[in-house]
Design goal:
Largest sheet: none
Oligomer: single chain
Strand content: under 5%
CATH class of the largest domain: Mainly Alpha
CATH superfamily of the largest domain: Cytochrome c oxidase-like, subunit I domain
Number of domains: 2
Distance between the termini: 38 Å
Shape: globular
Helix content: over 70%
Structural class: mainly alpha
CATH architecture of the largest domain: Up-down Bundle
Number of helices: 17
Length: 457
């Protein structure tokens, strides 16, 4: 029996997640205590943290897509060899990027701080993924569910925004700071929207399978939310540019588009009230509880996003730790919760490894530790950001004086980060062992219920 290529990506994704939160924990303490772990200084640990976390998001989403296409759609990949090559290119390139960071070799910007030459294999790997995806789904007959469209959109827009993020290499952009900042921040804002399409499409797929209701993914409401998300991907990025002297209409359009998120916000509240009894009934089902957690984090993070999209508030928050809180709430609270749900769903389907009661309790404890720690993690960052914004704009203190005043919040945030790391280790250790067992033994898939559903209380 051939190993499902999607499982390989899931295995790599869990490793990336663990390395990502490890480097993030180290970096958070280095930010407060500069002499902490001098072997790998902060200017190296930060990009290592970012790269591994972004890799976790991409690898787990891609692994899920490969797996779901070949198992639930019963459609063989257009080219399994191309998928294997994709995995190798991604792994080798990621290893080279890590080695560059550790050796102090940089050359890019923000998410892509590695030497520019390594952007080529990254682009090629996504091109292979895109070709394989589209050549595969054209064989799917009938009306396509919304998540197939979301995955397609995410792939296309990633290729576009990734290319756009390197326009700074051209003199036309590089020699004009306003033009450079505008395009750079636009590219990264839209890029986040592209991977959100992959993640949210995955969420809808898993929810469909958990509920056993295929109507949701074909409903008019699902496609309305898809097009609303697409509009935000294409135009909602400009709230990052309020402080850049760009054309006013860009800011007005962005603000109007970002406020349409209120519709999603209202829908979340409505569904939360409507499905509360259903959530209680299914909460013992481990993948489902991660989806419930992501729904709560969407609620919290969208509240923060709507607040900081208001221009008067944006002035105070820009460049403060509130931005970090928003990013971490999205990356861990929303994306990671959804993707862990998908990972656990896949591991349960393919693995013959049977979790004991203690192991299930460990995963459950890790779930609660991660979410509670993340809540305080973001809360401490918000407190630090609010105080910093006030001290900068109203009190006009020096940077050194400001950092001294907010230092207690930053120490608290670093400690909460250790809680996130511990919780995620508890959640992922046994699924990682289950995948290793599957890869080693190639056992016939066992019923999902055997491995992952504890007895309801």
């Amino acid at each position: 029996m051939k190993t499902n290529i999607g499982v390989i990506f899931i295995f790599l994704s869990i490793l990336s997640l663990l390395f990502g939160v490890l480097w993030g924990s180290i970096a958070s303490f280095q930010f407060v205590f500069p002499n902490f772990f001098n072997a790998v200084p902060f200017f190296k640990t930060r990009p290592l943290h970012v790269s591994f976390v972004v890799s976790w998001i991409f690898l787990s989403a891609i692994g899920g897509i490969y797996y779901y296409l070949t198992t639930h759609f019963k459609t063989p990949l257009f080219s399994r060899k191309m998928a294997v090559a994709h995995a190798w290119v991604f792994t080798i390139t990621g290893t080279l990027i890590s080695l560059c960071y550790l050796s102090g070799k940089f050359g890019g910007r923000e998410y892509w701080e590695f030497p520019v030459i390594l952007a080529i294999p990254v682009f090629v790997s996504w091109l292979m993924f895109g070709i394989n995806y589209f050549k595969t789904i054209v064989r799917v007959s009938g009306t396509w569910p919304v998540y197939l469209w979301m995955w397609a959109t995410g792939i296309c827009f990633f290729l576009f925004t990734f290319s756009e993020s390197y326009l700074w290499l051209l003199p036309y952009f590089k020699n004009n700071i306003v033009r450079d900042l505008t395009v750079q921040w636009k590219a990264y804002g839209a890029m986040v929207g592209s991977w959100n399409m992959l993640v949210y499409g995955t969420a809808i797929f898993v929810m469909e399978k958990v509920k056993g209701d295929t109507r949701m993914a074909h409903s008019k409401l699902a496609f309305l939310m898809f097009f609303l998300g697409l509009a935000n991907l294409m135009f909602g990025w400009a709230h990052h540019l309020y402080i850049v002297p760009t054309a006013p209409w860009i800011r007005y359009l962005s603000y109007a588009i970002s406020m349409t998120e209120l519709l999603i916000f209202a829908k979340i509240i409505w569904n939360w009230r409507k499905d509360l009894s259903g959530a209680r009934k299914r909460f013992y089902f481990i993948p489902y509880r991660f989806l419930v957690a992501s729904n709560l984090w969407i609620f919290l993070n969208l509240t923060l996003a709507l607040i900081i999209s208001v221009p008067a508030v944006n002035i105070f928050k820009h460049g403060t730790h509130i931005t970090v809180a928003h990013a971490m709430g999205s990356a861990i609270g929303i994306n990671t919760m959804i993707l862990l749900s998908s990972v656990l769903f896949i591991v349960g389907e393919v693995s013959g490894y049977r979790f004991s009661v203690i192991q299930k309790k460990t995963i459950n404890a890790g779930f609660w530790i991660t979410n509670i720690s993340l809540f305080f993690f973001c809360l401490f960052l918000i407190f630090a950001g609010v105080e910093k914004g006030i001290l900068v704009i109203e009190n006009q203190l020096s940077f050194q004086a400001i950092m001294a005043k907010i230092n207690p919040w930053l120490i608290s945030f670093a400690i909460a980060g250790l809680g996130i790391f511990s919780g995620l280790v508890m959640v992922t250790t046994y699924p990682l062992l289950a995948i290793v067992y599957y890869l080693k033994n190639k056992t016939k898939p066992q019923p999902y219920e055997v491995d992952f559903i504890p007895t309801p209380n």
